[in-house]
Amino acid sequence: MALYKLTQAYPEYQRDIFAGRDIKHFDAYSSTTDNKIGSVHDALVDENGYFRYFVIDTGFWIFGKKVLLPIGRSRLDYTNERLYALGLTQDQAEALPEYKDDMTVDYEYEEKVRSGYRAEGTKSSQYTRDNYRYDYDSDLYETREADHGSLKLYEERLVTDKERRKTGDVIVGKNIETETERATVPVERERVVVERTTPENANKPVSPGDHNFKDEEVARIEVYEENADIRKEAFVTEEVDVRKEVDRDTVTAEEKVRREELEVKTNGEPVIHHNR
């Protein structure tokens, strides 16, 4: 059976159960020596709403060790805001398994706790995880009005909890891929064409004075050609924005719960006043 911390089962436990008092502020005392052994750190409640353990921080009594005290081995003094551990000795507390806030209290751990409180010679080999019930150890878990105050009516509640777990990693990186590209650039190159022809009157003499035999520049033509300039340049082709988004969903569960109702039977016609 799952166990829950006090505030998980009863968020308003001070108002609903302890008449405005905070049980977590109660000092813990030994019922045999009347010496302070620590303080109440928390309480554990089962899934039906019943108190099963007080978590006792033993302080300097056992160097800050926290142990579980079954509800049946406790007595509450609301006037002085004290909790008395019935019959708990220092040797017994030192032998109990240590309780830690982040641990899961399972059947095996509870058995170690119960073994520390059971009377010597008590056999528990007939119990298993599947068939154990708390009323098998009624002296450990029974609540009494004389020790725990007025009668409490219990009701079952659905207790919800969430745990966060890692489902994976997303790694964003860059890889360099190399490929060969071919670029074509058309270029122009100029050339000078000199054509020489024989005139039709090549055999006819020219008139005197029409010819001028001398060295001189007849024509100048500038010749150009284009050279291809091919180079590499880097360009931004894509921008990547990396972020996390939370998808929210609601998990709904249905379960039958029980609630204790006070039943008053009368004979005759007595006058009854109900105070709540």
Enumerate the spans where pLDDT stays under 50 for 5 or more consecutive residues. none
What's the number of helices?
Answer: 6
Q: Helix amount, in percent?
A: 10-25%
Count of extended strands:
7
H/E series = EHHEEEEEEHHHH
- Strand coverage percent: 5-15%
Q: Outline the biggest β-sheet.
A: 7 strands, mixed
Mean pLDDT: 82
Q: How large is the radius of gyration?
A: 48 Å
Distance between the termini: 32 Å
Given helix and strand content, the structural type is: alpha+beta
Which geometry do the CA atoms define? rod-shaped
Q: Please, could you describe this protein's structure?
A:
With 276 residues, the protein is α+β, with helices and mostly antiparallel strands. The protein is built from 6 helices and 7 strands. The chain has helices at residues 6-9, 13-16, 90-95, 107-117, 138-141, 145-148; strands at 3-5, 27-30, 36-46, 51-57, 66-70, 74-77, 82-85. Strands 1, 2, 3, 4, 5, 6 and 7 form a 7-stranded mixed beta sheet that branches. Strand 3 (36-46) and strand 4 form a beta hairpin. The longest helix is centred in the middle third of the chain and has 11 residues, at 107-117. It is rod-shaped, with a radius of gyration of 48 Å. The mean pLDDT is 82.
Topology overview:
Layout: E1 3-5, H1 6-9, H2 13-16, E2 27-30, E3 36-46, E4 51-57, E5 66-70, E6 74-77, E7 82-85, H3 90-95, H4 107-117, H5 138-141, H6 145-148
